[in-house]
Amino acid sequence: MTTEPAVKLTNRSRHRDLAIVIAMPLAFLVIGYGLRYGAYSFGHTPSFADYLQSLCRWDCSWYVRIATDGYDGYPTANQTNVGRWAFFPLYPLMVRTVGTVFQLEILSAAVLTSTVLACAACLVAWPLLGKDSRAYALLCAYVLSGPLSFHFTSVLTEPLFLLLTSCVLLALKRSNYLAAGAFSALLSATRLVGVFIVLASLLKIYQDYRLQRPGKPFAYWILGKPQILVAILISPAGLFAYMLYLRVTVGDGLAFGHVQRAFGRVAGNPILFLWEGLSAVPAEGWIPSPPQWSALVAVGGLFMCVLLAWRRQYGAALFCTLCIVLPLFTNLASIVRYVGGLAPILLLGAQILSIRTDVFIVVLLLLLASCYLLTQAWIGGHLALV
């Protein structure tokens, strides 16, 4: 007699959770598109095709060309020293597949692909946030209608990188190492720094080893678990597959790195780049300059890495630190985008900012307001948002 009400309560709770999980991304997706379209239409003649084109800035055009025509041979067709090899293949391959299957023009297919990936990333975040509805709302709002939501809903790798990183974290949380290895392989085919997620897997494996206390050295313990060995070995498979492709087609398996010079990325001192950015005071006014914005976001991202480590999320902290520091060895370009798409930082930020109701409400309103303003800055070509 007492179990039936308990079952009904459990089912009701599950239905409520399912409604939250599905409704929140859809709601913020609609709000975000309204805000971004409103920012575009201010001063423009409203046109959805022109709206999509207005959001296609910076790296977007490269991904569209790769999805349309594939990678350059050598030399490039128009005799330029800039090739498409710096952009990893998984995202444009997905865009091309969606365009072919649904008979869509490439730009429309890319926007559809990014939007679906961004919503999927929100769904995966639900269990990672401990099914906390307020934290989940903040994360959905940030990704789909926040200040950098155009990164996640236009033609860039951010939504795919966010989704795959979240999938790796969820697989590790459940100690499903084979799934983590498979998602890591896909992540390494999305962006170069994605290959370093394997370090988070190794740290989680070591933590499990310490908990089990098997009485044998770590190396011998791993050798006795073939599924873990397979997971580790397949983690960089996406990167190696791309390197093989470049070696066969271009003759240089590291072309994605060597071509960086053509984009103005030359190795230097990251501390010096940060200092130059912080000290780039605007000629007039109090609003920080683009280099200052980039440097401040980089410093903020590194601070969040420290918080991750303080919370004993060592693997996530190491991964995020590498994803921030390694690009800084060239310059500050795109660092706002890189930091703004790191899943562990976003998850931690959503958890911290949702603890108090008043803070949650203020942050949510700020996210929505900044979506409109920063979309205008993105369309206007603000360099910090590259």
TrEMBL record:
One of its GO terms (molecular function) is alpha-1,6-mannosyltransferase activity. Keywords: Endoplasmic reticulum, Glycosyltransferase, GPI-anchor biosynthesis, Membrane, Transferase, Transmembrane, Transmembrane helix. It is found in: Endoplasmic reticulum membrane. One of its GO terms (cellular component) is mannosyltransferase complex. Signal peptide: none annotated. The chain crosses the membrane at residues 18-35, 106-129, 136-157, 177-206, 218-245, 293-310, 317-339, 359-379. This is Glycosyltransferase RgtA/B/C/D-like domain-containing protein. It comes from the Bacteria. Coiled coil: none annotated. InterPro entries: PIG-V/Gpi18 (IPR007315). Pathway: Glycolipid biosynthesis; glycosylphosphatidylinositol-anchor biosynthesis. GO terms for biological process: GPI anchor biosynthetic process. It is a multi-pass membrane protein.
